[in-house]
Design goal:
The chain is of the alpha+beta class. Helices cover 38% and strands 19% of the residues. The chain has 14 helices and 18 strands. The strands form five sheets. Strands 1, 2, 3, 4, 7, 16, 17 and 18 form an eight-stranded mixed beta sheet that branches. A four-stranded mixed beta sheet has the order 9-12-8-13. A two-stranded antiparallel ribbon has the order 5-6. It is globular and about 65 Å long. The chain starts with 7 loop residues before the first strand and ends with a helix.
Length: 387
C-alpha cells in the first residue's frame, strides 16, 4: 500500500508568484519532495508542503478552520474523502478534470456520487512478485505456489506479505466472493469472511507464511532473495528491480479455488478542505490542479515514484518505452475492484483488524469473529453519526 513515514516539512518555492499554497500529504515516497521540487521549475506558485501521518490527518482537518495557517489542499488516498464530514471538501467541477485523465479513476474520487477529489495517481493494487531463480513459470492458481516449496533452499521462505495488514487480506476475501461493504452497508458477518479467515490463518498454521513478518520484513526478505514469492504493490517494483535484476518477475495475483483474487484499486487524489477551491486562493489552487494533471508532472509520477499516472497520453507513451513491467502493472488493474471511499471505511478497517487478530489468537471462532466485527462496526458507525 502507499505507506506513511514520519512528519517532514518541505518548502517548494516557485519564483514570481505571490500566493502561497499550504499542502498536506500522506505520500510514502522518499522522492515525493524531489518530485515537487522538479515540478516547481515550471510553475509560478509557492507551496508549503508537509507530510502527515494518516492517523493524524483527521485531527488536522478538524482543526483546519481554527489554525492560523490552514491547509489549502491535500494529496491522499481516495478513501480519505470519507472524511468530508470534518473536512468540507470542495466539489470538483468537470471543467477542472483534464481531458487526458483516465475516466475510470473518477469513480474512486466520488462520495455519494459527488466528485470531491482529482485523481493524480492510480493503482495501489497488489501483485505477485517472484524470483525466477526459484520459480520458472507464472503462477495461475494459488495452490500451485505450494508445489514450489520442496525445491526451495532450506532458509528461503515460500511466500511473504504484510500478514497483519488488512489491505493484504482483501484479495483472499474477494476470492470467496466477499467484500467489506455492499451498497454502502457493512458486510463483515458472512460465509465469505469466515472462509477467508480460516484460509489465511490456515496458511500460517501450515508454516507457509509467517504472521510475524511485517511489511519491512517481507520486503527485505524478497530483496535479499530469501523468499520465492511476495505479495506487494506496484510501488515496490523499482526497489525489487534494483535488488533482483533479471531474476525478478511480476504478475497479477493468481486464482484461488478457481476464482480471481481481486485486490483493491484506488487513487491518490487532490482535495480541497474547508471548500478551499472557492476561497481566497482559488486561482492558485486551480492552476496547481491543472499542472499536476499535465504531461510534465504525470511523467515524473512514474519516473520518480514508479507509480501509475492517470494521464492516458503519458501512460501510452510510457508503455511503449518501458516494455512489459509497466504493462503488467496497468493490465492487472482490470482484475481489481475500486476501494470504497465512504466515511465508514476508516472504521471498517479498524474493526476488521480486531476481528482478524481475535480469530488468529483463538479467542473467537470464525463465526464469532464475524458476529463481533459486524456488531462493533455497526455500533461505531452509528456513534460516529451522532458526533
Amino acid at each position: 500500500m502507499w505507506r506513511v513515514f514520519w512528519l517532514a516539512v518541505l518548502l517548494v518555492t516557485f519564483d514570481g508568484y505571490a500566493a502561497t499554497i499550504n499542502l498536506a500529504h500522506t505520500m510514502k515516497h522518499e522522492h515525493f519532495n524531489q518530485l515537487l521540487s522538479e515540478f516547481a521549475e515550471q510553475s509560478g506558485l509557492t507551496v508549503n508542503s508537509v507530510l502527515v501521518d494518516q492517523k493524524a490527518l483527521k485531527v488536522r482537518l478538524v482543526q483546519n478552520t481554527s489554525t492560523s495557517t490552514s491547509t489549502d489542499v491535500i494529496i491522499v488516498p481516495a478513501d480519505h474523502l470519507g472524511l468530508d464530514k470534518y473536512a468540507n471538501y470542495s466539489t470538483i467541477p468537470d471543467s477542472l478534470i483534464a481531458d487526458t485523465t483516465d475516466k475510470r479513476t473518477l469513480e474512486t474520487a466520488k462520495l455519494n456520487n459527488e466528485l470531491l477529489g482529482i485523481p493524480i495517481i492510480q493503482g495501489n493494487h497488489l501483485l505477485l512478485f517472484y524470483n525466477k531463480q526459484f520459480v520458472k513459470e507464472p503462477i495461475e492458481n494459488w495452490q500451485d505456489i505450494y508445489q514450489i516449496q520442496p525445491s526451495l533452499p532450506e532458509k528461503v521462505k515460500l511466500v511473504t506479505w504484510s500478514f497483519m495488514e488488512m489491505y493484504w487480506f482483501i484479495p483472499f476475501l474477494s476470492a470467496f466472493s466477499g467484500d467489506l461493504l455492499v451498497d454502502n452497508q457493512v458486510q463483515l458477518n458472512t460465509p465469505a469472511m469466515q472462509s477467508a479467515l480460516k484460509f489465511v490463518w490456515g496458511l500460517n498454521k501450515q508454516n507457509l507464511v509467517d504472521r510475524q513478518c511485517d511489511y519491512t520484513c517481507s520486503n527485505n526478505a524478497f530483496k535479499a532473495q530469501q523468499a520465492a514469492f511476495t505479495i506487494d504493490g506496484a510501488w515496490a517494483l523499482k526497489a525489487y528491480e534494483q535488488a533482483l535484476g533479471d531474476s525478478l518477475a511480476v504478475q497479477q495475483l493468481p486464482k484461488l479455488n478457481g476464482e480471481y483474487m481481486q485486490p483493491y484499486y484506488s487513487t491518490f487524489v487532490l482535495a480541497f478542505p474547508n471548500d478551499g477551491l472557492n476561497g481566497v486562493n482559488k486561482e492558485s489552487l486551480i492552476k496547481f490542479a491543472k499542472l499536476v494533471q499535465a504531461e510534465k508532472f504525470q511523467t515524473l509520477v512514474w519516473q520518480k515514484l514508479q507509480d501509475i499516472p492517470v494521464n492516458t497520453e503519458v501512460l501510452n507513451n510510457l508503455k511503449a518505452q518501458q516494455g512489459t513491467e509497466l504493462s503488467t502493472l496497468i493490465d492487472a488493474i482490470q482484475f481489481t475492484k475500486p476501494m470504497p471511499s465512504t466515511a465508514s471505511m476508516i472504521i471498517v478497517w479498524e474493526v476488521l483488524n480486531k476481528g482478524f487478530i481475535r480469530y488468529g489468537s483463538g479467542a473467537l471462532t470464525a463465526e464469532q469473529a464475524g458476529l463481533f466485527m459486524q456488531g462493533l462496526a455497526e455500533r461505531s458507525i452509528a456513534n460516529e453519526g451522532d458526533e
